[in-house]
Design goal:
Chain A is α/β, with parallel strands linked by helices. In chain A, 41% of the residues lie in helices and 23% in strands. Chain A is globular, with a radius of gyration of 20 Å. Chain B is mainly α. Chain B has 2 domains: 63 residues, no CATH class; 275 residues, no CATH class. Classes of the chains: A alpha/beta, B mainly alpha. At the A-B interface, helix 4, helix 5 and helix 6 of A face helix 12, helix 13 and helix 14 of B.
């Protein structure tokens, strides 16, 4: 049994997304392993970002189930029971289980703890780097209400809480080497720094699953390597599983444990990087040949 | 120096003179029918046509001279703009002024009534200046209240006056209500409601306005940008129309009068033995009440400012600004955008409600006339001119717009015979000048007087965020 089948944090079953007459994603099922780095790859227009938007609640899928198990793996029976019950979330023996397609987008982030970054960076560009990281901790800071008196009157209990949040932001700024620019507006930072700041911001919201939409897009090779290090740090030091869309094969092959390949909205391959590298259908999809011609291509590239 | 860049060369001068002459001819042609002919009526008789070609010539001459001067200076071909960085001494000086400005501004506001009395020579004559102070501060407060909604949360609200009206009518209705008065007469003494109604009603007015903010917010906050603006505009008009047409409750267009006046926390400003003057050993003067009103609106405006400063540093305030920057990113971080927008809407409305209660107790009369769309537009203009999100900018623009419009009334020297004659009424041109001022500010400072944003928290140094990076919000 594969590691991602043994302990999946996210089980995607029969996910379909239809925009009018266009089937953007058709019957895609896969597992995202807990504590692993899972990459979704595929040619442009394959439906990768649509899958992401379904997982993070920005789209409501036309069909399918997205079950996220926090803490411990959920049994098939538990998922089935929750689906029958008609509720979105349930507490299980060692954690909780959420059906993401039933949660509104902000609850996918705050309750199911799925954070994401965007293909085109969406930082709060008029706010400083530090402020960006504090906004990300909004849910933790507003546990006692949006307008809690402690915060309104700046009581010591609130100040301790805020100090903790600032401390955490500083730790992340150190980790991404931006401590010196903490008071600079996010929009003034270089592109590569903005990418890393966006990842740090997502991590500040304390996610169990972090979805990265093309984190290496537009980075130079040196910045790409720094990104790899950051992603490895996140996987090794935090209890966060990673799901990423990426075109940069050095990033994908360098850090992923598990790769899913989409083409025209369908899953065409699913396996370890080695398996994907040699999968004839993936090669066909990327090099653009008919399946009959795959063997010829393979012979040509020497597999 | 090249030949084309020099103003003295015949090429440039000749072209400038030619341009000036053409402009003069065009002006003359354009103005001859508009200004040159004038039909006057002479006591019911036929219309008499008079000719004013001299005036046309004067206008054409002005245009020619202005264009000539501009063509030789600012519009000179090949002129390069020299941009010098400000000298460090100047920067240090403006920084020092910047840090000193806020306390100085505050002290000036507190001692303003004293200055007004001293400058005008007595309590009675200072009335005009105190009233202007109250008038301006009311708009400063309204501007700061709307600033929360428009400046921080980026929600374009064109119906802010609705909450002002809710506050004013809440106070007017409660304070003149016979059952409420009777109830308190039975419990706390016959005079209680007359003396204390403002202080009891003030929180109620704010809360009710905030509640209306929520009621309006729920259906409209799914709209964005222009659509939100139009619906809030409609909401403002609906409130006004309800006030006009629900005659049983609001007395319709006739309004509600005989609202009890303000008291010094239960002590009336009357000439009697239990009045304010007698109790504090002063000679009675009706101006005491106005000065007290000044300090009330100063306190209310101060409350708005302090609350806004505090809210900006709280998670909810940061969420408002984040919402203005990027709503989708907010949702990806788990922020409930509907709830966050509602808090902005209702807190902004609450301060509008406070200001409304103050308005009612100051004028002691409310009618739907006071809550037209023009009011919303003026308040929004104050916020936009001041710079979205900037408190000091909003205060300065309120002083400039409201105070400036008042000052235009005082340009009586223009009526002297040698200038424009006694028929000239400068106050008629107030709106024209107001419009010009708005266009000028938008041309030179498109993001308002104070366009930079100050960070709410900093590690080493609080830096200004330039307006290019700060989003304006899309509703």
């Amino acid at each position: 049994m594969r590691s991602w089948d043994r302990d999946p944090i996210l089980s995607v079953d029969h996910l379909s997304m239809r925009f009018g007459g266009l089937l953007a994603v058709g019957d895609v099922s896969f597992r995202v392993g807990r504590g692993e780095v899972t990459a979704v790859i595929g040619p442009n227009g394959a439906g990768k970002t649509t899958v992401f938007n379904c997982i993070t609640g920005f789209y409501k899928p036309s069909m399918g189930r997205l079950a996220l198990a926090q803490g411990v793996p959920a049994s098939a029976a538990e998922i089935h029971d929750l689906t029958r019950m008609g509720r979105a979330s349930v507490k299980t023996a060692g954690g909780s289980l959420h059906l993401l397609e039933r949660l509104p987008d902000h609850k996918v982030a705050s309750v199911a703890k799925v954070a994401r970054t965007f293909q085109n960076i969406r930082l709060f560009s008029g706010m400083t780097a530090l402020e960006n990281l504090l906004v990300a901790q909004h849910m933790g800071l507003t546990e006692s209400g949006l307008l809690s008196p402690a915060a309104l009157f700046n009581l010591p209990s609130w100040r301790r809480k805020e100090e903790k949040a600032v401390h955490r932001a500083i730790q992340w700024l150190e980790r991404i080497n931006l401590l010196d620019r903490a008071d600079d507006p996010a929009g003034e930072l270089p592109y590569g720094d903005q990418r890393r700041l966006e990842i740090a911001r997502a991590m500040c919201s304390d996610p169990v699953l972090l979805c990265l939409d093309e984190p290496a897009a537009g980075l130079n090779p040196r910045e790409s390597l720094a990104l790899n290090d950051l992603l490895r740090t996140i996987r090794n030091e935090f209890a966060t599983s990673l799901l990423l869309i990426e075109h940069d094969m050095s990033v994908v092959m360098g850090i992923s444990d598990h790769i899913i390949v989409l083409e025209y909205g369908r899953k065409i391959a699913d396996g370890t990087p080695e398996e994907i590298r040699t999968d004839p259908r993936v090669i066909a999809a990327y090099l653009g040949v008919d399946e009959e011609a795959v063997e010829a291509v393979e012979a040509e590239v020497g597999i | 120096m090249t030949a084309t860049a020099s103003p003295g060369t015949p090429g440039v001068l000749g072209a400038a003179i030619k341009d000036a002459l053409i402009s003069a001819v065009l002006t003359a042609l354009l103005l001859t029918p508009l200004v040159g002919f004038r039909a006057t009526e002479d006591g019911g008789g036929p219309l008499i046509l008079t000719y004013r070609f001299g005036l046309v010539a004067i206008f054409a001459g002005i245009v020619a001279v202005l264009r000539l001067v501009l063509n030789l200076t600012l519009w000179r071909p090949g002129r390069t703009r020299v941009k010098r960085p400000p000298s460090p001494a100047l920067v240090a000086f403006t920084d020092r002024i910047g840090t000193a400005a806020k306390p100085a501004f505050f002290v000036l506001l507190v001692i303003y009534p004293v200055l007004a009395v001293l400058a005008s020579g007595g309590l009675g004559p200072s009335r005009y200046w105190i009233d202007i102070g109250i008038y301006i501060l009311t708009y400063v407060m309204l501007g700061w209240g709307l600033n929360i909604v428009v400046g921080l949360a980026g929600l374009l609200d064109l119906g802010y006056v609705a909450f002002y009206a809710v506050g004013a009518y809440t106070f007017a209705l409660l304070s003149t209500s016979v059952p409420v008065s009777d109830f308190f007469a039975g419990a706390l003494g016959a005079d209680f409601w007359r003396l204390w109604s403002f202080w009891v009603c003030l929180p109620a007015c704010g809360l009710l306005a905030a509640m209306w903010g929520v009621i309006l917010g729920f259906p409209v906050l799914r709209l964005r940008g222009d659509y939100l603006a139009i619906v809030t505009l409609a909401f403002g008009e609906i409130i006004r129309l309800v006030l006009i047409n629900w005659v049983d409750l609001t007395n319709g267009g006739a309004g509600i009068s005989s609202i009890p006046p303000i008291t010094f926390f239960g002590i009336p400003f009357s000439s009697g033995d239990d009045g304010f003057a007698a109790l504090f050993g002063l000679t009675f003067d009706p101006m005491h009440r106005n000065i007290f009103l000044y300090f009330i609106i100063l306190g209310l405006a101060g409350l708005t400012a302090v609350a806004t400063i505090r809210l900006r540093r709280m998670p909810v305030g940061r969420a408002w600004e984040a919402l203005r920057e990027d709503e989708i990113a907010c949702r990806s971080l788990g922020i409930n955008t509907t709830l966050t927008k509602l808090t902005a809407f209702s807190i902004g409305a609450m301060f509008g409600g406070f200001a409304g209660a103050f308005f009612a107790v100051r004028i002691r009369f409310v009618s739907p006339e006071s809550f037209t769309f023009l009011e919303s537009a003026v308040i929004l203009a104050i916020v936009v001119l001041g710079g979205l999100g900037s408190q000091i900018g909003v205060a300065v623009s309120a002083i400039l717009l409201i105070g400036g419009m008042e000052m235009l009334r005082n340009l009586t020297f223009l009526k002297s015979d040698w200038l424009l004659g006694p028929d000239f009424d400068p106050s008629l041109y107030r709106m024209l000048i107001f419009g010009f001022a708005m266009v000028a500010v938008m041309a030179w400072r498109p993001r308002g007087l104070v366009s930079s944003r100050l960070a709410t928290i900093f590690l080493k140094q609080r830096k200004k965020v330039s307006a290019d990076l700060v989003a304006e919000g899309h509703g």
